[in-house]
Design a protein that fits this description.
With about 120 residues, the protein is an alpha+beta fold. The protein contains 3 helices and 5 strands; from the N terminus they run αβββααββ. The protein is globular.
């Protein structure tokens, strides 16, 4: 999908998280070790969320390679090093996948799937 679709997907993911009680701390954090799409907080839990906007579920899942997961962990560690006030919180890595709905007149335009704890 295009960069515009990716940005629209990230906004939809933020809206989804906020509707479910998460507070967005940061978006599109670029660090030398990688990029963190969304960092969110809820009830003593710090979430590092990767957002994948793809044409289908399978391609979104395939994009989460072992190398991608290592880069996410490294970037999260770097972010925590700069934001020590969150260091004592439990951390979790989640994936939010957005795929187009069937048909033209569906709302929302994307099907949102939130997969919790993708890296163990």
């Amino acid at each position: 999908m295009s960069t515009a679709a990716g940005q629209q997907g990230e906004q939809a993911a933020c809206d989804y998280l906020q509707r479910h009680g998460y507070r967005i701390l940061a978006r599109n954090v670029r660090l030398a070790r990688g990029e963190l799409d969304i960092i969110a907080y809820k009830k003593q839990l710090l979430l590092f969320i990767e957002v994948k906007t793809h044409r289908n579920r399978e391609s979104a899942l395939l994009a989460m390679t072992a190398d991608k997961c290592r880069r996410l962990q490294s970037a999260a560690n770097a972010w925590l090093g700069r934001h020590r006030q969150y260091a004592a919180l439990q951390c979790r890595f989640d994936l939010i996948m957005l795929t187009p709905r069937d048909g033209w007149l569906k709302w929302p335009a994307y099907r949102i799937e939130h997969i919790r704890d993708i890296i163990r």
